[in-house]
Design goal:
This protein is an alpha+beta fold and about 300 residues long. Among the domains are: about 1-45; about 50-155, Tetrahydropterin Synthase, Chain A (2-Layer Sandwich); about 240-260 and about 265-285, no CATH class. The protein contains seven helices and nine strands; from the N terminus they run ββββββββααααβααα. The strands form three sheets. Strands 2, 3, 4 and 6 form a four-stranded antiparallel sheet that branches. α2 (about 95-110) packs across α4 (about 120-135) and α6 (about 240-255) packs across α7.
């Protein structure tokens, strides 16, 4: 038996087999200087650092029977306290991870349409990571991340997608233009509505002001007419019948200057002429008596 030394680095773990058997209690050695006995003890070094596996491009069929070429990356690392499983449970975990990742990817993509695959990369990444981690956990491997590098549809599918995108862009342009036209029409209609409201309000205010002005003018005219009537009434109270008769005569004089041949007189006019008629009668009687008295005096 020959003793020998193994140096285990910080990022490594040493699986020690004694007579070909791994001891669960002390078979996994941490970093430091390890003294072993050959040929009784053999070892396998396990690297705990995270590594990346590039999964080769695979052709996958979607649920709507569209072929897609997909390649992606898998990030993984051995679980520190179960690192011995990398040696005990699987011969080549790299190849095992590649095979399982390819199979799981086909199953995930087969449940999705082309549009979903192209638009939901994060969903595919998460499903791949979860399902891979469930399987690799029994090998002492932790899948930390899955990232799709590229998705390449077939040529005819790419052409159809280009036409679809062109049609979608055209539709969005038409929708945007229609929406702009609608908004413009609404804005114009609202502007016209507000203008009509303002015009109606202005007309209403104008009519109110006009009516208020007419009302005030009517009140002022009525007050002036009332004041004039009051003054006329106050003056008329001091006018006797003779004065009124003279005023009527003056009116008749003015009427006589006109070209009219017919006149209409109120009934009150004849009453006003009564005193003058009486006076004229008295004068005529007096003159008659004077004429009658003159012959007597001569005799």
């Amino acid at each position: 038996m020959i003793p020998y030394i193994k140096i285990v680095r910080q990022y490594e773990r040493l699986a020690v087999f004694t007579l070909g058997k791994f001891s669960e209690t002390g078979g996994l050695k941490g970093p430091g200087l390890r003294i072993l006995v050959w040929p009784i003890q053999t070892t396998t070094m396990i690297d705990l650092r995270e590594e990346v596996i590039d999964i080769p491009r695979q052709t996958n069929i979607t649920s709507d029977n569209a072929p897609l070429d997909i390649d992606f990356l898998v990030f993984l690392r051995p679980i520190e306290h179960e690192a011995q499983k990398v040696v005990l449970e699987v011969i080549n975990y790299h190849q095992a991870v590649i095979g399982m990742a390819t199979t799981i990817l086909r199953a995930v993509v087969g449940e999705m349409t082309v549009d979903e695959v192209l638009s939901q990369r994060e969903r595919i990444n998460d499903e791949l990571r979860v399902k891979l981690d469930e399987i690799t956990g029994r090998w002492g491997i932790k899948v930390t991340q899955v990232e799709i590098k590229e998705i390449s549809p077939a040529t005819d599918i790419q052409a159809a997608m280009n036409r679809q995108m062109a049609a979608e862009r055209l539709r969005r342009a038409e929708v945007t233009e229609a929406e702009g036209t609608r908004q413009a029409s609404i804005t114009v209609a609202e502007g016209e509505k507000e203008a009509e409201i303002l015009r109606a309000e202005g007309q209403r205010q104008s009519e109110i002001l006009t009516a208020e002005g007419d009302q005030q003018a009517s009140v002022l005219r009525a007050e002036g007419f009332s004041t004039a009537l009051d003054r006329i009434y106050s003056v008329a109270q001091n006018i006797d019948t003779k004065t009124l008769s003279l005023q009527y005569f003056e009116t008749l004089k003015e009427m006589g200057k006109g070209d009219s041949t017919k006149f209409i007189f109120p009934m009150e006019f004849t009453k006003l002429l009564g005193p003058f008629a009486s006076a004229l009668s008295l004068i005529e009687d007096k003159q008659s008596r004077e004429e009658e008295s003159q012959p007597t005096d001569d005799a």
